[in-house]
Amino acid sequence: MKKIALVVGLAATLFATAAQAMTVQEFLTTAAGIPRNPTALLRSDTRRLMGEVKDAFRTLRQEQQAARGAGRAPASCMPERVPVNTNELLARFNAIPAARRNISVTRAIGEWMAERYPCPR
Questions:
Q1: Which percentage of the chain shows pLDDT scores above 70?
Q2: SS3 of 77, please?
């Protein structure tokens, strides 16, 4: 009985985490409301967006390591440090067609990294 409760609780947690994944459209809408000046770093929205990007890279690195560990080719071969600036990220997200902007920030960055850092075949 305890195992069933644990599995149900874990599933609910995973579902809640997936449901909270920010979409590219939500990211762009939030970013549009942030002023482009040094005080932007003091805003909670800025920190939330920075956290979303950081979490996306963390997830992608974990997926990359898991694929290698399982003997599969990872989706991308990102280096340990990936330089990304705000303008570059926003330009990339704005280039996504409006019909596809419902994808998660993690998926959008994953697709970008797969193009930017493809694995040798």
A1: 84
A2: coil
